[in-house]
Amino acid sequence: MITIPYFCKKYDFHNPDILRQLVKYLNIKPVTGDLETRGMRFYREEDLLIVYKQIMKMVEEVGVVYK
Question: 23, 36, 44, 48: which has the fewest Cβ within 10 Å?
C-alpha cells in the first residue's frame, strides 16, 4: 500500500495531480482512508504502477520529455 505523494517521490514523477485525476477517472478505489490513517488514502502500488506506465507510454509516443 502506498499514497499518491509517496508513489510520485518513489518513481520520480513530478505531477501528482495528473495521477490523482486519472485514479479518480478510472475509479481506482483506495485500500484505506479512515480516521485511523488520518484521511490518507493508501492504494495498491500495483494499481498506481499500471496507470504510471500508461502515462509514460503515452509520453514516449508523443515524444515529449517529461520530468
Answer: 36
Query: Can you give the pTM of this predicted structure?
Result: 0.78
Q: Which three cell numbers stand for residue 44?
A: 495498491
Residues 6+ apart with CB under 8 A from 14: 8, 67
Q: Which helix (H) or strand (E) holds 19?
A: helix 16-25
Beta bridge partners of 2: 43
pLDDT tens readout for residues 24-47: 999 998 887 665 556 678 999 999
For residues 65 and 21, the answer to whether their CB atoms sit within 8 Å is no
